[in-house]
């Protein structure tokens, strides 16, 4: 599930259509509600290497931010100096380590650092949902050389696994959730998500402007 919406300034949630990722803004007068189109979402730029993800969320002069992580999800609530309140929830493609996540408040928004659960070929996309318009891959936040090296290591491990099982004359079925699935390794992209964990709040923060 991907959710990005603005909540009432009084703290009451305004119902939105989560499946279409709509955003609703409300003033102190609850009758004054209008919808913001998808291309006006706060932009989320992201990049990665084989072990970490970096997200830059564009909410200028962000304040009151709170970021929570589970092994499969990032949940953010924040506001800007205009008093607009944002809520963002992303179901990640692959598991992460919540306790090793951190975020930094900047004048331009939030910078989030995420630790992957395992060192692996780089993800084809950030989330389980293939089409999320406000997510943009940023090459400046990525390390393609590291990604390629990780893919080669995984492919080598797969070929060793395949030869070992072939010598035993015991065909082995590799489950779709197994990150060593040949197609996943070769394409470094189609590794199915797995595992769910407890929710934790990431308290590792640096000073604003860092």
TrEMBL record:
Residues 39-127 form the CS domain. It comes from the Eukaryota. One of its GO terms (cellular component) is nucleus. GO terms for biological process: chaperone-mediated protein complex assembly; protein folding. One of its GO terms (molecular function) is Hsp90 protein binding. Transmembrane segments: none annotated. InterPro entries: CS_dom, HSP20-like_chaperone, p23-like. Belongs to the p23/wos2 family. This is CS domain-containing protein. It comes from Plasmodium fragile. The lineage of its organism: Eukaryota, Sar, Alveolata, Apicomplexa, Aconoidasida.
């Amino acid at each position: 599930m991907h959710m990005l919406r603005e909540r009432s300034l009084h703290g009451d949630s305004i119902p939105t259509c989560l499946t279409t990722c709509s955003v609703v803004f409300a003033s102190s007068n609850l009758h004054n509600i209008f919808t913001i189109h998808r291309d006006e979402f706060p932009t989320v730029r992201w990049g990665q290497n084989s072990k970490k993800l970096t997200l830059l969320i564009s909410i200028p002069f962000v304040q009151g931010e709170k970021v929570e992580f589970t092994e499969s999800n990032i949940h953010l609530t924040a506001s800007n100096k205009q008093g607009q309140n944002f809520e963002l929830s992303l179901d990640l493609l692959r598991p992460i380590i919540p306790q090793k996540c951190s975020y930094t408040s900047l004048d331009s928004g939030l910078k989030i650092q995420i630790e992957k659960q395992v060192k692996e070929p780089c993800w084809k996309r950030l989330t389980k949902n293939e089409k999320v318009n406000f997510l943009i891959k940023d090459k400046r936040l990525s390390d393609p050389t590291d990604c390629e090296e990780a893919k080669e290591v995984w492919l080598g491990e797969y070929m060793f696994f395949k030869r070992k099982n072939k010598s035993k004359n015991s065909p082995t079925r590799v489950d779709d959730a197994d990150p060593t699935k040949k197609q996943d390794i070769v394409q470094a992209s189609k590794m199915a998500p797995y595992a769910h964990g407890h929710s934790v709040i990431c308290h590792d923060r640096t000073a604003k402007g860092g």
